[in-house]
Amino acid sequence: MNLLTVRRVTACASLLLAACGGNVVVDHDGSDTPPTPTSTITTTGTPTSTITPTDLPPLCGTDREAPGCQPEEVAATDGQPVGITVDETHVYWTTLDGALWRAPLDGGTAEMLAYVGGISYYLAGNALHLYMATYNSNQVVRVGKDDGFLDVLQLNEAMPAGIAVDGTHVYWASTSFNGTVRRRPLAGGAVETLLGGFESAWKIVLRDGVLYVADQLLGRVARIPLDGAPVSYVATNQLGPVAIAVDATSIYSADADGGQITRAPREGGPTVTLADAGYPIDIVVDDQSIYWTDIDTGRVSMLLKDGDGGDGGDPIVLADGQDRPQGIAASPTHIYWVETFGDRVMRVAK
């Protein structure tokens, strides 16, 4: 077995994949045929969260012992949550059994919006829809936020995972060897391949008219300008970035195989290590800080962007003892994440 094969197997195990290749269909109810998608939103019953909503939660910064600065459960769920996103009113998450759920940002009754029929590690959204690439059923789908209606946008993709959306298109990346990044107009139309040659493309981020794609096995990030300018490769010399976040100047990577959090200029330049980690699996940033989940240590951590000497200082543990924290998302006041083996959606004030 060569090095790439070893790393590929490690990645599949670490991301809780049902399989590392082929067309594997999630068995939802014991039959070979998944249930017909429905536009009826269902709920789990009584709320499980004990969060007391506040008009303006504290911004805790480095003071994690202050009142209101401890982790809290937003919702209990079924099916082992993996992907997550937030909007102005709700937190949304996907599960390993192929469902899409939501709950109010301040906690409350969890609602299943739709049965998607495959594992979606990431979500993207706009005002009307949530978009997902289902890794093991090889589809790109969208679900209406208001009615839960499921619309299949693209079939027969090669293990897609990363997903992004802007005002005109939905974008997705294939994790397969010699994988591609493709897009389709939101209003319908032909699918366009933007770039190929990826070996294991995971999270993608769209910022300022440029699409950034983390390639785990090639240890770098592809930079794809949507105006047709030349493609370049940035945040290089990493061992295995699976997730990225982008701000006005930099790319931040969860270099899972390297066990580190890194930063590199958006348009190219040296990649520097900001913090050591176990197996960091997802990452987000805001104006002041970097946040990530670590499935090896069971921690959710924060690093100040500037810190001592401009290197971020030491990481601050926001939550410890989590049972496989995976997807992570940020609202203006809180960090949200899923605890996959704990079947919970969690949050902590920034």
UniProtKB/TrEMBL annotation:
Transmembrane segments: none
Residue segments, region Disordered: 30-56
Alphabetic keyword roster: Signal
Signal peptide location: 1-18
Keyword Flavoprotein: no
Record's compositionally biased regions (Low complexity): 38-56
PROSITE patterns in alphabetical order: PROKAR_LIPOPROTEIN
Name of the featured protein: DUF5050 domain-containing protein
Upper taxonomic lineage: Bacteria, Pseudomonadati, Myxococcota, Polyangia, Polyangiales
